[in-house]
Amino acid sequence: MDKLRVRQSLGLKGEIRISGAKNAALPIICAGLLTSERLTLTNVPALRDIKTLSDLLCGMGAKVNFANSTMEIDASDINNYTAPYELVKTMRASILVLGPLLARFGEANVSLPGGCAIGARPVDQHIKGLEQMGAQINIEHGFIKATAGRLKGARIVMDMVTVTGTENLLMAAVLAKGTTVLENCAREPEVTDLAECLIKMGAQIEGIGTDTLVIHGVDKLHAANHAVVADRIEAGTYAVAAAMTCGDLTLTNARPDTMGAIIDKLSLAGAKVDLGNDFMRVCMTGRPKAVDIITSPYPAFPTDMQAQFMALNTLADGVSTLTETIFENRYMHVPELCRMGADISTDSNIAIIRGVETLTGATVMATDLRASASLVIAGLVASGITTIERVYHLDRGYEQIEQKLGRVGADITRLTD
Ligand code: UD1
Predict the structure, then answer these.
(1) Sign for the pseudo-dihedral over CA of 8, 414, 386, 342
(2) Which among 171, 240, 369, 403 is least buried, having the fewest CB atoms inside 10 angstroms?
(3) Ligand 1 touching residue 123 (CB < 6 A)
(4) Buried-state track 335-351, b at ≥16 Cβ within 10 A, e below 16
(5) How far is CA 365 from CA 48, 88, 307, 327, in A?
(6) How far is the CA of 12 from the centre of ligand 1 (A)?
(7) DSSP label at 229?
(8) pTM (2 decimals)?
(9) What are phi and psi for residue 323, nearest 5 degrees?
(10) Cβ atoms 277, 238 nearer than 8 A
(11) Ligand 1 atom with least separation from CA of 95
(12) How many degrees, rounded to 5, is the angle at CA 302 between CA 50 and CA 93?
């Protein structure tokens, strides 16, 4: 298994080009299943999760071409409606094929994802919404077996804000007969990006960007071209790296307008942040100030940036509190950061971080995607060498992380067994 070796690298300086968002690309690729015509996507990041999803679609009979950030999806010949356990267990977002398959073919057979490292993560809201649209759904042998005639428009109120739940129901509704009203929707920029792509494919959607989406079903969708929105979490991660290393990074091809809460907390931590429409520059001098953070659905502070800001707070001047409200088990980076000299205690979903003056390099274990990112940026400031094991988590979500950081001055090497 690959490892990353990170040596202390203070003062990162230069430009990093931000990739397309994994969490937008995944549902949008699944939207390719909604039409027999070609969907062409640009700004698609070359990541392990994207490859997993592409393999899943190919297994169903789709033709997928992916080169130079451009993906062409031809789902004219789908002959298998199954998402097998082997793929779903490696990537929970595979659940996103459920809505499109059911809407276009009236049949889907998707392995239940089960729990994951950061919590139980049920999919009951996806199932409840599809049932309200007329689907018959049974759980058999670990699979969600769903059948339907043409789905019917319905009024659906989600019990909690769920990103992939909103996306699945939105994709189901665009081909349903009649109007669907989805309430308590996720408003994440990735949901908005999916909705904008669906509109280019001929869908009729009102309320984009709000918590109520009104979808007037159409008989079919057609070919379209769409550029995937920039990855706000990748940009946020490199912004924290700039702040933590007292660096000066300009993040290009970014979308600061989707990053309000992140930019706010960076500024409160003492970073100087300059913004343009498609770039942001983050500079820092001196020790960060401690910032309290509560994770919540967009537009509040994203859970996917919690671990990185915890890393920043470990070196802060003062004590900070971090409250994780989205996932129940998302503090697995805490013991790893403590092995590097951080002073963090947790009580249920609250972490208290007492800033220390220095971190020291150690061998640490990456436990999930964003936890891994926090260990990399902690490694950049820790004295000596940090070795991060199980780096495959990072490859699920950060395109060319060692090259991108290497070009701005980080000493970071991949060690392949
Ligand atoms: C998505 C993101 C993930 C991010 C998360 C929260 C993708 C591919 N992944 O995950 O990076 O961390 O949003 O912003 O976009 N829940 C239920 N029942 C459901 C659905 C969700 O109880 O049917 C709960 C979950 O357990 C969790 C909360 O709702 O506690 C939010 O989860 P959700 O927004 O669905 O996360 P994902 O869409 O899986």
Answers:
(1) positive
(2) 403
(3) yes
(4) ebbebbbbebeeeebeb
(5) 19, 23, 14, 20
(6) 33
(7) P
(8) 0.97
(9) -120, 120
(10) no
(11) 39
(12) 30
- CA-CA distances (angstroms) from residue 382 to 26, 218, 356, 374? 34, 55, 11, 12
Q: What's the gap in Å between 123 CA and the centre of ligand 1?
A: 9
Length of the chain: 417
Centroid of ligand 1 to alpha carbon of 13 (angstroms): 34
DSSP β-bridge partners for residue 350: 323, 347
Active site residues: 116
**Which ligand 1 atom sits closest to the C-alpha of 120?**
26
Ligand 1 atom with the shortest distance to the CA of 188: 14
Q: Residue 197 — φ and ψ, nearest 5°?
A: -65, -45
Taking each helix axis from N to C end, the angle separating 124-132 and 98-105, rounded to the nearest 10 degrees, works out to 20
Torsion angle in degrees (nearest 10) through CA of 272, 231, 110, 32? 160
Is residue 93 within 6 Å of ligand 1 at its C-beta? yes
Of 9, 7, 20, the closest CA to residue 231 belongs to 20
Coil, helix or strand at residue 263: helix
pLDDT tens over the chain, length 417 residues: 889 999 999 999 999 999 999 999 999 999 999 999 999 999 999 999 999 999 999 999 999 999 999 999 999 999 999 999 999 988 999 999 999 999 999 999 999 986 666 667 789 999 999 999 999 999 999 999 999 999 999 999 999 999 999 999 999 999 999 999 999 999 999 999 999 999 999 999 999 999 999 999 999 999 999 999 999 999 999 999 999 999 999 999 999 999 999 999 999 999 999 999 999 999 999 999 999 999 999 999 999 999 999 999 999 999 999 999 999 889 999 999 999 999 999 999 999 999 999 999 999 998 889 999 999 999 999 999 999 998 888 988 999 999 999 999 999 999 997
Ligand 1 midpoint to CA 53 (Å): 18
Check pocket membership of 313 for ligand 1, CB cut-off 6 A.
no
